[in-house]
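Lecture 7 notes. Example A: sequence first, then its structure tokens.
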Amino acid sequence: MQTNMSHVALEILSGVPVGFTLGLIGGGGSILAVPLMVYLVGVKDPHVAIGTSALAVAVNALAGLVQHARSGTVQWRCAAVFAPCGMIGAIGGAWLGKAMDGQRLLLLFAFLMIGVGVTMLRGRRETDCEKTSYAPKNIVKIASFGAGTGLLSGFFGIGGGFLIVPGLMASTHMPIINAVSTSLVAVAAFGLSAALSYLLSGYIDWGLATFFILGGIIGTYSGSYCARVLCKKGCHLTTIFSSIIFTVAVYMIWRGFQTL
């Protein structure tokens, strides 16, 4: 009984940093969720870890979205274009991902993380909290980014926020706080699309998802608050988060090559 309670506590605590990163930077939840489920919680089947993390990240993204929406930073028109296109891509990506060996999928995921980390470091810059320059002429560009990001999201079982945020900024020139807030709409949509596909194949652990989500909700509240505060002051979150990405990716690559 004590062992079960300890494991439940571990599952809840593992969800906290996932929710915190979602609330803070609008993405990165699955970058932490998948390896936490596999290497810390001890989920044996990588496909179960990917499917369950997709569901947990989607629900946690909705919790973070509520906090950002209250502060008025969500750009709903951009989200209305980005999210539906991404959902279509996510369904196709999830179908492709399930056809691959689970361990190889995690290894590819790790290399993707390194690429994202490098991109984040090269493109980091300080932005203020002014309003976005959304315009109807950007619809095609926004839709293209949505479809491409959704495909990768479904394939690797990730919320995709770490790709959505720079995509929204590049296509609309919106400040980071608006991109973070708006990305949560797409993260939730992508995650639910991927989770539905994995659910139909029996790859969702509902008990783990419940406790992981509980911890994630705690994290999203604090992460959303920090994002609003840091937006006004400027920070080095991109550098810090990229360092976390590199650390986790190297560990996943090391473990992945051991199992091949």
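Example B, a different protein, same format:
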Amino acid sequence: MDLPAGEVAAFALAVTASGVVAGLMAGIFGIGGGAILVPVFYQVFGLLGVDDLVRMHLSVGSSLAIIVPTSLRSCRAHFLRGAVDMKLLRSFIVAVPAGVVAASLTAAFISSAGLRAIFAAILFLVGLKLLFNRRGWHIGEAVPGNPVRSLVGFLIGYLSTLMGIGGGILNNTFMTLFGRPIHQAVATSSGVGVLISVPGFLGYIWAGWGLPQLPVASTGYVNWIAVLLVIPVTLLLAPLGVRIAHALDKRHLEIAFGLFALFVSARFAWSLV
């Protein structure tokens, strides 16, 4: 789908504004931004008249492309501090990308409504967990070994890729439920984000290759205007969001993001009616 120069400018302006929102909220809530970017992109692409057949897929693929440099940067920083559980991360090297590949194949055939339903369902569960979170919640005292660990890694890769997120929300939940400290979980999740985002965004390029409904400057389900505009904006504003977060109570932040997750989940669920 080709757009006149004026519409391209409006598209660029709207996407840049979405990067401002995503950067601030990602910093405030301590997540990679995918859970913010996908619903924001979905709204922006809708306002700009992007075909509904590709709108959700484009939002997810573009989000994954943006997560690539941010996850690489974050993983390196955490690794240099010695905070990443490399043993756990190495055990995910096959399972997580396998889930990503399976999700990319699914994305090539699943409808926009199906993708929205998956996003809504998982975000609803995440919202409930944040709202009713208790520090003492544990399933066990040690992260399970194989085959359970590989299955979990596969599911993290699969579901995160379908949602367009870096896996932090799901991996943090997995590790903390088995007694790992949150700082180690966050650090290790940055590595999981690399395992998801790199093959994930390539998979979405393949899944949407050559579709006529795609907007200008798109390669498969990745829109490069969105990617190139949002990356510097999110990197610039995320530190400001972090400063805001440190000025607020952590529990209040969990409740706020839990409510945001439930709102977005309801918004996507309503779109299916």
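Note on Example B: Residues 52-80 form the longest helix (29 residues). The longest strand covers residues 218-219.
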